[in-house]
Amino acid sequence: MHPAAEPPKNSTAAQHPPPQPPPLTDIEIISLAHHHHQHNPTSPQVPPFLLSESSHPTLLSFLHSRASSSLNSSSAVFDYVSSLLSLISRHPSSGLSSLVSALLHSYLCLFISHKIPHDHNSLATLQQFVGYIDMIEIREIQKVIGLITSYLPQINDLDDAHVLILIPKCLELVRISNEVDKPVEYVNSVVDALIKCEWSKVLLIKMVEIVRDFSSCIDKLRRREFLEKIFVKMRNDVEMQDLPGLVYQLLVLATKGFGKREVIEGIVLYFGCMNKGGSVMKQVEGTVLLHVNFAVKQDPSLGQEVLGLVRLDSRAFNHFTVAVLLSVARIRRFGETAIGVLKSALFNAYKDYKFAKVCRWLSAELSEEYLENARVIEKAILKAVNASHCGREHIVPSIVQLGFGLLEGVEEGIQKEISKSDSLMGTEELGMQVLKCLFEVHDMSRNEIIEQCKFRVLSLKPEQCFPITRLLGYLVLVHPRSMLDHVSHLKEMLDYFAFMDDKISPHLVTILLPLIKFKCDLQDYTILVLRKAMFRRENAVRLAAISAMFNLILAEKQSKTDGLFSFQESSSQASCSQHAEVSQPTRPDLFQELGGLLQKCLYQQANVRQNLYHGLMKLVLVDPLTASTVFDFLLPHFKRFYREDADVQLGIDQCVKLENGRCYIVEPLDCLLFCISWILLLQPQNRSGYPSDSWACFGFSITQENEAGRTFSGESFSNSLAQIRKFLRNGNLEGLLGKDQDSGSRPMEKEKRRYSATLILGIVEVAINIIVAELEKAANTQKLELERELSQFVDIHEFVEKYTSNSRQGTGAKRATIRASVSDTADKLALGGTKLPPERTPLLATSSIHRLLQLALEFGNLDPKNGAASQINSQNSSGKTLVLNSKVLPCILRMCFRQLKFFSFMGKDDPIKTLIYGEIKLLGPAVLNIILSLKPVAKPGTDLSKKEAKGRKNIEVIREQIHLALLCLKKLIEISLYDAKYVSLIDDLVSASGSEDVSTGVMDAGCNGDCQLAEGIDDQSTRSKELLIKTIIKPLLIEFLEFSFFSEAEILCDLVLMIGNKLPEERRNLVGSWVTRICKSSHVSNSKVAKSLVFAAVTLSSPPADLDVAQNMAAELRRVVGSEDTDPLDTSETFPVINKSTDAAIASTILQSVESTVVDMDLITRRLKTYYMATQKGVSFNQMRKVAPELAMEEMLYSRAEAVVKVLSYFVAMNLKDPQAEHLLRLAAKFYKNLARISKYRIAPKGCKQALPSLKYHRLVEITCRQLTAPVYNFVAHMQKNQQESNKPRRIVNKIKRENKCIPDLIFQIEDYEKYLIQLSKTTKVNLLRHAKRSTSRDFKILEPSEDTLEEQNPTEEADCDNLNAIENKSSEESGDEGEETDSSQLPKSGSPMAAEDTEDEDEAVLPQVKRAKMNRVVQDSSDEE
């Protein structure tokens, strides 16, 4: 090729165009590019043809011709474009930018029109163009962007999306360009076009890949829209196999800072809502969890986002959220935190539901919402655990940690707050289900679960250990074979038996009993451990060991009863010879084997012996055939304390010892006789059918000769009990108790006497049980004699009782330390029993008390229809001797009350509870009939002062009996209301009352609205409760108020409140209305009864009526108490129950009711805090588009707070006494603290959206400022004025000290509230302080003294006054608010009257500087915050 000739340089030559460079073909261009690449890669020379603009059409035509070629057009185009771009890159000049622009535009047109194939060559070509986009002019780049965006809807294949790789570079160049007018707006419009266009599945995946390359061009709002579009398309178009890669790209995008929270939200919601795919989807979720785990390791801030989502909104909970948290918990830095967030979310859901259920002024719909939320969380946890075997084995350790964390959370009391009727599992059940599922699914987790159980049983507190032991019990019972593989761990736990808590150790032995029949040596190992424990010095260890021994013995007896041979049998099938060997017992009976060890228990402490006796009773209950063997075991021991031929047959003196200045019981003889008496009643009457092997014990052979001996043991005990009964009736009880010389006896002798009386009292109760049992079987001729004997023993019981600590007739000496009661034993506590108070456990059977009550009704001339007059005035016309006199009835009622009191403390599944207490609901009708028989029937105006002085005395006696009977009735109703087994007790009471007869004559009093009670109700339980109020409690209450039986009326008010709280909301309101009418119609002078009536009226009124009632009563109370402008009245006309005698008690009651509302407000405010934070940050998981429950809660909160303001507004206008005024100050401070919290939470943090306050909130602020804040300042000023004018400075010093705490706190809370109102007003541009009054009150107010007063003070007092005033001046200066300072002229000079008054007593007048410092700090904090 020859070089072109140079053009002539003269002007004539310039008029002719230069000669065109020789054209190049496309093949020559490709060859030239290859040549330069191989031989001269750094040469900048470019063929002139390419530099000429006239060659551009030719060059572009080559591109089109190659694209139209039928043979391998893709490769041809790629070779040509890459060669051409290679040559252009050697001479980067502005002249070639048009060629690059035209080439890119032509290539895009060919690509978009599908004139060239979309394959790897096209991708490589587009990638080369990315490097040359910088050479293109901005306006041409905009055209490229337009072409690409118009092509987006046509992308349906992955190769079609190759063109998108140009987008990031193009947008970045436009964004930083100065040639484009408003480049940011243009970029935003392009992003909007990308978001709004229709995305195919391929485009979705490609968008996720490229968006991180131009993420700097997208603002926060568009990022959120972009991610929303991605997750919407994921739900509809993405196939499951594409999900892991797509999620990985999203996580990579999040690690680059692109919408971290939105990415996590979207992933969690997407997989949490997916209900299709089955096992394939579970495998996909497992892969995604691994991706999330890896991403959190690379960027820990993603882990914080996961935790933050659950903290802000519990509605984020689904099974995938749980799985993500469990996966994140495998990272060391998030381990404890992630599990803690899971637990907290569950516990908070339980607490929210429990509060919504208990808080009466929240709607039922809100309670259902929280119930559903708790259910969702429970189901999410279980679903995540159930799917743990599908590719997510890495979360198994986290599941173990969560399960045990839930079991340990039972200690927080959540379990007791959850009822099974709510269809919630509760913390313990959920934790057990998690670990059960894990134990069944993952073999590798079993060893860890057992090891963790062992560690926690040995290290946790007893309350936390019981759920762990119950889990072990389930695993032993359901998976015995699997547990045998870990028996070494179980033996290690048994090794620590003596070091465990005495409540846990016997329970642990009990749950391991089912394994004994599978593991032959486990029983021997357990017995060995128990033998060692019996020789420990600690008394609690021996008690636990004796309980565990009887658990072993009872389990063996129960297994024989169920048809098993023994615990030693193997579970595998034996051969015929083996069957023959098994049928022959290879070892003695377990009771026989442990007999020697049990005999040693008879020489240990009293509580060990007591546990032994009750264990023997349980043994006979399980196997009555062992009764004779037990008698043989006890007879020699019994003979030590019973001397048949002696004058004093019972060795009470041997049962009580004085040693080292301490008195204690050695032998619980009453428990021994109690055990013997019940075994005599339980033993079979027909002995011929006894199997011979059941008597082989303690060396007795199975022969005919010793059968008589065994029979003699039972008969000997029977005869001995008969002799003891005779001895107690005829013997000298004073001698049995010991000599009592009041003047000379030592204190220890008196203590011993009380202990002896305690034992005798128990023996008397055993005798009463025996007599009642004989009375049930006696013929008519013998019944009268037995009834006389029963009456004698009741008298003896009353006589002995006055020597014990429980006696009302005692001298007031300190209560003796009585033996531990039955229910204190470890096995009962393990079953969920409650610890008993240190009082004697009654040994009377319920049947005995029931019989005594019946006899009292039958022979005491008590007629439920005629009332007390039949007892006062009647004569015993039948000629029969009165068996039970009126003095005995209080004793019987005290027995009944004690029985009912201890009933709730007995173990739930304790067989002795059934034996002793039986059907305790039988006592209800008898007690009620006694009340109805004793009630007064005389008219209130009857004069009993002269002729009927004796009748007046009888009325007082009857009143005492009614009081005791009402206490018993109250206990019975408590049992019925809180134990489902005894719910029919109320039905029995209603049936026994004879409703028509009871209500005659008194039902019409105030019946306008109460007649609706018990009408139109389908639910039988509710109807029975209302009938009980309507037909029994209401007439009695009206009658007792007429007769001024105030203590009895107070008990009835408690019953009304207790029953009313168990009624449905609409029915409870009827009861509240009736009590309110009682308050309007009855003049009550007793403050306790008035307090009970007012409290019941407010509490039983359904919200918002409850605070309406409180507001009406507060208005009447202001008239009775008086205010600064009005004089007080003696009695309210609207509510006669409010009068001068009851005003203080009623004021305290109303304030107490309002305080409960303020406490509820505090809990709701804390719950709203989380909601406000989530709303302000834009977090929302409201997938169903429902109204958030917090919105309804917020509206209710404002309405309730407004009602509180109205009630308190009446109190701040009253002349309250000191205790009520102090209560009001504390309550107002709490209320303003809640208002300040509400205002503070409504202020959005910086960078978050500020919501406008609602109209209800605006109204609340206005009413608070007008009706409460301004009057509160006047109230404080009035209080301080009265304080200064008081003439008794010594008496008010303590009050001043208390008020110096209350008043500064109240002022601080008010100012804190107003501070947040100011901030909220600034952020919302709404004036919320339009009706506010600037505060002028502080913690004190000092008035300027007169000149005459100053001259009368003496110099000594002036020095003290200066000291006090210096402290007060400092406090006053520091309490300034918003530039408002106290005028110095108001400060008193030395010798002021106030100072002189306060310094009258040197020790009391000057307030402690520490308390003043605290007061100063409170006020200073207020100033600092402003």
TrEMBL record:
Annotated transmembrane regions: none
Positions of the UniProt region annotated as Disordered: 1-26, 1344-1426
FANCI solenoid domain location: 156-272, 395-549, 1109-1345
Pfam family for this entry, one: FANCI_S1
One of the protein's GO biological processes: DNA repair
Annotated GO MF terms: DNA polymerase binding
Biased composition (Acidic residues): 1345-1361, 1374-1383
Domain FANCI helical: 301-382, 568-804
InterPro entries xref list: FANCI, FANCI_HD1, FANCI_HD2, FANCI_S1, FANCI_S2, FANCI_S4
Full protein name: Fanconi anemia group I protein
